[in-house]
Design goal:
Layout lengths: L6 H14 L7 H8 L3 H13 L3 E3 L5 E3 L2 H7 L1 H20 L2 E8 L2 E8 L15 E3 L4 H11 L7 E5 L6 E7 L8 E8 L7 H16 L1
Antiparallel strand pairs: 1-2, 3-4, 3-8, 4-5, 6-7, 7-8
Helix pairs in contact: 2-3, 5-7
Length: 213
């Protein structure tokens, strides 16, 4: 800590990060041990975060991330989209297919940025705001696959006809971006994805991840 920073705010943000990294919540004692502070401090931090709906406590007393974080998260989409656009434009023009950035939204995959190629006679109409289950389509499947891979490992996922008849997709997950779970991909009218597309999508996903770090 330096003279210009707030110790209380730092601890509150650390609480949110700890809670975001667990699916089952944490008790006051667990948070106290992880933060290296006494339980009274943790109680005060949780009470303040609860007032802003950033934290909630279940009937068993375990603290979890609150719905207020979702409201803050919605404002992140425009920033993420802006950072991703250069890589998406390059990908769309290079492949000649619609490129997209997709983020996890609950149990769905949500397209937050879409770029269409400028030189093709036709391409798949794919719009920002398009939502589909994570287990359908290359964008969602790439995200699910990344959850099973070692940290830092990137690979591409291919699908055909899962979201639109006659359309094929390729996508690669964003890797190493704290607080953002998503993928970069392309969708095209084709029976199969050309061989060079998968590696190119992986490169684009890395470019977007670098822009978001």
């Amino acid at each position: 800590m330096t003279a210009e920073t707030s110790q209380t705010l730092d601890r509150g943000l650390r609480v949110l990060k700890l809670l975001a990294d667990t699916d089952h919540g944490l008790t006051v004692t667990e948070l106290s041990n992880k933060l290296g502070v006494n339980r009274t401090v943790v109680y005060r931090l949780l009470a303040t975060l609860e007032q802003h709906a950033l934290v909630r406590r279940d009937l068993g007393g375990r603290a979890r991330v609150g719905l207020g974080v979702l409201r803050l998260g919605r404002q992140v989409h425009p920033l993420v989209r802006e950072a991703a656009l250069p890589a998406l434009r390059s990908l769309a023009e290079d492949i000649g297919a619609t490129a997209h950035l997709t983020l996890v939204d609950g149990s769905d995959a949500l397209a937050v940025a879409v770029v269409e190629p400028t030189w093709t006679d036709y391409h798949v109409a794919y719009r920002a705001g398009f939502r589909h289950p994570l287990d359908r389509g290359a964008a969602g499947r790439a995200i699910l696959a990344a959850r099973q891979k070692p940290v830092g490992e990137t690979a591409f996922t291919l699908t055909h006809g899962e979201l639109e008849a006659g359309a094929s997709g390729a996508a690669a997950a964003l890797v190493g971006v704290t607080g953002v779970e998503g993928s970069v991909g392309v969708v095209m009218l084709a029976d199969s994805v050309p061989e060079r597309v998968g590696p190119r999508v992986v490169d684009a996903a890395r470019e977007v991840a670098d822009a978001l770090r």
